[in-house]
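name: query_chain
kind: protein
chains: 1
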Amino acid sequence: MRIEATRALYKGLLADLGERNPYAGRSVALARLWLRGYLRMPRVPIETWRAMAVYLDGTKGVASLLMS
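structure:
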């Protein structure tokens, strides 16, 4: 079951926008894992971009200035 669950999560991450859940109606647990991957898919590139890291570093500096 663990291999199938991991596969469902990664299939969700790799799914195209608007793609139907292939596990719907077959397994509630696998369908939820696929959905978790599908919903995370757009956030992965955004959260790992260099610009996001620079932005987050900049906001930490602002927060420290406000607290002093």
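note: The chain has one domain: 2-67.
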